[in-house]
Each structure stands twice: as structure tokens, then as C-alpha cells.
DNA sequence: CCGGACCCGGGACATTTGTCACGGCCGGGT
DNA sequence: ACCCGGCCGTGACAAATGTCCCGGGTCCGG
């Protein structure tokens, strides 16, 4: 029996996947969590063979949790299951020690098979996505440029960002201007969207 | 046997829900579509008793499709199944003739039961959500203010919006200023997010 | 018929945003 | 030792944005 941990915030999706995987004769779902900051605790308790993690989770990113699992439970293979096939996500997933990267499109049949492959030590990645990740190159933004961009979502003004980051307004504007240049966009919001599409945020 | 049509863009979610509903002894999934503009055709072909529609679909909104179904297949009950419990969505769903409104949080067990209730003519709505929809009141934005807001996502400049709507830049700025005022926000992006949260967009 | 709401546009103005040039400070690599 | 890059800040400037006026038009309900 392959012991599986499932981390996914949408209740219906989580329940459906758990039922599905549980129907496979060789797979058993030993833990389900809806928050990113519950993953490590649950894994230590239930000792899964494979962890199936969403990326966008409340509390803690699935990517960060993957890195935690590599340290805390090294014999647990991590599979990332996410809505968005962003190149930067794939890159970060690999750096965090994940053995596979699935997008929520594509057929359900993929899922159980991916779990089995993961246990056998094979890596499971969509080839087209891998190519995109390679061709996109690494994240060109510096840490502070990322911070500034991330803080400028939902219409925060320069003053808000500066306050949140404990910086001068001038500095924030310089970072944003630089990020806009690097993303080849025309303003903050376009830069945010471009960076998000690449998985840089 | 209850004949169900399933409209959902995420392949894995769609497949999982279909399998799940198919396991119920009294339910049969007779059609699955991944795009909003395929709903009506599929419904005319497969004559479902209940249509389970996501809102955010490529091609055509699930809410618009619900209105279509009311005309084309009046004996088919419509259930809306969506990620976001936005008050405005619920209101529009009811106006489009839906008999129920489910959010993708909450347990999977809800789902089959909701389908059965829908067939019996009962309406299925989360009471807390219904209260929120009532207390929020109707959409205060005019049609053009909505257009301007909707066109200003992903960092479009005023000139872009004006060109896309065949309007003068002054007009666009007036609409946006008005929308900002009505949403009680400080700039475009905050207004967009506020309007989206309410389901006004 | 009149008021009110929506649609569309113009002009003027203050504020915000984005750009550029310029400093200084640190740490790592050659 | 030196340079380079990231970090933090300033000042000045052009462009974009948001606000407040104003005008005109239509349509609908009282």
C-alpha cells in the first residue's frame, strides 16, 4: 500500500481526490490537510510515502512545505499539484526537492499513475512545461524587487508599500521601475501580472 | 436515474466530480464539457435533468449559460458550483434561474445531496451566503462603469481602455472616477478588487 | 411636461507614478 | 586591491491618473 498525504485547500477538490485515490487498490490516503502550515506536522504523524501538495495554500506555500519535508521526512517523495503551470513554479519545485509537477488540467487518470511513478523514484513532468521552464531562464528579479512587486498587488499605493517594507518612497519607486524594466512592461500592474505568469512572485 | 450535465474547466476537477457522481446509484453523468459555450449544445443533445455549472469558464460565463438553459431546456434545473461565494454571483445566479448555489469548499458529500434536492425542486443555498448577498444590496455600478472597470484589469492604461471601448479618454476617466467613488476605494486597482469581491465584475 | 438617471464628452487642476541621474554603503569575486 | 552588483536613499522631471467642474444627448416615469 502506498501511503499518501494530500494537501489542498479547496474542500471539494480535496475530498474528491481523496476518494479517487482511495479507490485505487494499492493506494491509501493517510492524511488530508487544507492548510500549508499543517503539512509537516501531518507528515511526521502519518509517515506518508508520497505527499501531494498544492502550491497556493493558506498559511504556508506548498513549495516551502516541500523544502521542509525534504529535511524532516527525507524518505517521503513530494509531488506538486497545481492549477498553474508557471515556469518559475516548476523551477522552484525542483529546487525544493519535488520529484514531480502536475497541473490540474489533464485527465484524472494521470494522478494515480503519477503517485506510483513517484514512489518508484521516477520524475513526472509535462515535457512541454519543462521546455518552457528552461527557455524562460531564471528569475531576473532581485529579492527587494520581488518584495516591492508582491506588495503592490490589490492597488496599494507607493506610500503603502514603503510603509509595509519600512523603506523610503523613493526607494520603492526605484525598485518598481527596475522591475518594470526587467519584465518589459509599462507599469506596476503589468509587471505584477508578467511576474506572476512566470511564477516569479 | 438522475441525468446530470457537468461544466467545469479544470480537467482534474471535472473528472473527479464525474467519477464521484457516477458512483451514486441514482445519478448518471450524461455530459461533460470544459467550456461555457458548449453547455447549451450538450444540454440539447443529452437532455439532462440537472446541470452543474462552474461560473468562470472559457467561452461563456456559467451564469450566462444558465440563462440560456432556462430558455432552451426549461425542464433542466441549474446548479451553480463555483470557487468564490461572491454575493453578486449568487444574486445573478438566482436571476438567471438557478435553483442552487454551491461553493467548492465544503465537503463532497454535499454535492450528490444537492443534485437530488435540485431535482425535487428545492433550492440549495448556504444561509450565511444568502444573508451576505442580501445585506450587500444590488450592484450600484452602471453598465459602462462595469465595462471600464473590467477593461482596466492587468494594467491597461486609460488610452487602452478608451480604445477598447471606442470612447474618449475623458469619458473613461469619468467612469473610473465614479466607480472608485461608489466602491469607496482609492484607485482603479482597489476598485477592481472590491468590485470583484462583490461579484460585480 | 418635467425631473432624474444614464450616456458621452471637454477642460483644468492636484496628485501619483515612472524615469533618470546621482550619491553612499556593503559583500563577494578576481 | 579593485570592480561589480545589490541595497538604500535623494532630487528633479515628464507622464499618467484621479477629481471636479461644465456641457450636451437620450430615455423613462411621475
UniProtKB/TrEMBL annotation, chains A, B:
Domain called Response regulatory: residue spans: 3-119
GO molecular-function term, one example from the UniProt record: DNA binding
Pfam families: GerE (PF00196), Response_reg (PF00072)
Location of the HTH luxR-type domain: 134-199
Keyword tags: DNA-binding, Phosphoprotein
GO BP annotations, alphabetical order: phosphorelay signal transduction system; regulation of DNA-templated transcription
4-aspartylphosphate sites (modified residues): 54
Keyword DNA-binding: yes
Domain of life: Bacteria
PANTHER family: TRANSCRIPTIONAL REGULATORY PROTEIN DESR, TWO-COMPONENT RESPONSE REGULATOR
Protein name (record): MerR family transcriptional regulator
Organism field: Streptomyces viridochromogenes
Lineage, opening ranks: Bacteria, Bacillati, Actinomycetota, Actinomycetes, Kitasatosporales
